[in-house]
Design goal:
This protein has 671 residues and is of the alpha/beta class. It folds into five domains: 53 residues, no CATH class; 161 residues, Substrate Binding Domain Of Dnak, Chain:A, Domain 2 (Up-down Bundle); 149 residues, Rossmann fold (3-Layer(aba) Sandwich); 198 residues, Rossmann fold; 33 residues, no CATH class. Helix content is 48%, strand content 10%. It is built from 27 helices and 16 strands. The strands form four sheets. A six-stranded parallel β-sheet has the order 6-5-4-7-8-9. Helix 5 runs antiparallel to helix 9, helix 5 packs parallel to helix 10 and helix 6 packs antiparallel against helix 10. The chain is globular and about 65 Å long. The relative contact order is 0.12. The mean pLDDT is 93.
Length: 671
Amino acid sequence: MPKIRPTPEEFSADPAAQEMLIRADELGISTAFTRAANMTPCNIGSAGLCCKICGMGPCRLTKDGQTGVCGATMDTIQARNLIRAISAGAAAHSDHGRDMAFILKAVANHEAEGYSLRDIAKLRLVAQEYDIPVEGRSPDEIANDLADLYIAQFGQQTGVIAPLKRAPEKRKALWKEQGVLPRGIDREVVEALHRTHIGDDQDPEHILNHAVRTALGDGWGGSLIATDVSDILFGTPAPLLGQANLGVLKENMVNVVVHGHEPTLSEMIVAASYDPEIIAYAQAAGAEGVNLSGICCTANEILMRQGIPAAGNFLHQELAILTGAVEAMVVDVQCIMQALVGLAQNFHTKIITTSPKVKIKGATHIQFDEHHALTIAKEILKVAIDNFKNRQCTQIPQVKEDLVPGFSHEYLNYMLGGSYRASFRPLNDAIMSGRIRGVAAVVGCNNPRSKQDYLHTYITQELLKQDVLVVETGCGAIASAKLGLLLGEAGLDKVGPGLREICQTIGIPPVLHMGSCVDNSRILTVLTQMVEEGGLGDDIDQIPAVGLAPEWMSEKALSIATYCVASGVYVIFGGSSPVSGMPDRVADSDLIAKYISAGWEELFGGKLEFIPDIDEMVRQTLAHIDRKRAELGLPAYDPSHFGRSGDDRMLQLENLSLAEKRQLIYGTVKN
């Protein structure tokens, strides 16, 4: 029976994406959506039961008791495959952190054109965390020492990486007890590869113990370094107004889309686009100027600091080109589809690679060098402007939403307590009282094997109804932005009464945009500060909080999940599990799945579970939050206790008599 291909409405929940998918069909062009529909995943590989680490295989295990040629069992093979994926994800994010540290060093020594130290206050605070002297010293001197410290964390061979000191004391003691304190970021990745070479580590639990160590080197090391340095160089995010979706592209301007994950190039392109020389160059080409927008986490980086609009998340990269209105897509590293080059040949769009680590055959390569950053950024923009004359038929979806991004942990601290008493006390108190039931981080990628954005936004909206405060990063944040959930007034009529009171009182959206995927380190910092504030236990695993990645697809997501679990967080992934086994045919193929759930929970207080049913994901999230509330001795969640304050109630009170106001306030009158 022929396979029925999904409709555009089944491919994506986003109207702009649906419009572009219809256009792709009309033009006979494939996309990731259609390729996924036509490609059946290998059920053995997707279950983690294919081993190809030596030349005796590949070995495909499909029967009870079967082993590889070397005798490797199903659980050993699954553990090896999982740690290799975690290590690749950790390498990707941490290598980003390394590059940021080198740029900080170059800026401190005035060797990087166009850059400056924008957040001196954060520079001093971070330096003091590591006992770097700040008094009587220039910012350049402090930054130079901090850069040296950060660079050393990658090649360090013994001891413990320095950023780990920012974790809760009880958590650090637990990591020491379990033998998972990362010694050096690179060392743990290399050792993971060594352990999984043919004939090495063959104890699944021992292998996954090192997976935790490797991931911790990423989350509390490389990723945290990347976030800190980005804030120091480009400014710590604070709320501002932005826009999201393909409607941000402009017919009368040169459209340049920056895509990838490193802010060093994109920040310079932003600066260059405002240069009078570039504006005049664009006008001479017949355009009104240069219009920048972003895809993926580069979008989040420049969105939360500069207000540059986001054209979309991961699965929008092809759709942006399908508009016919993009003169250049400028990419750096991570999540860049090779299909972009072939797709762009149907239009006038130039794909420009910029990283020495990433080339795509058929793309234009203009290598970025931070020592000549602004000059190269202008060169790239001129290539795009020169291409404007080649634009032909365009179709830009008139779909976009306003949003307010930029909720760094520093701003949350200020937002909750003010300039002179910045504190997480109000957040802790709101959770303790039950106004906020708990906290959920809804993060991660898009995956064309699920309906784009649907899982992210459905889970987010269901949790908001239950008074769960939602924080988001990466493509998940852009999904909510496209639905209009990142505005203070957006959807508050569908938010639980207690959370609505908090949002109205503080003036925040019910969903807080915290940055790019590497900025999940901000969420770890928030959880640590909540522990330090008191009232919610003395370690992260006691907080009523859950992490969810409903549409995960990358190895980076597995690293993030693992370091969050090791930090004490219950993490739920949607979609398929890379260690699911084959339950219809294999009885003993779920040992690893049980270990990363119940086994890790016993060791670290956090667990990783793959739950394909969306409603079950919500149920398990709420059950975990309620269980943690009960263990802390907090009152059971009861929404009927709240909803009698906030802007809505104030407006109602204005038109009531004094007696009616008293009745309303004390709850003796039904509304």
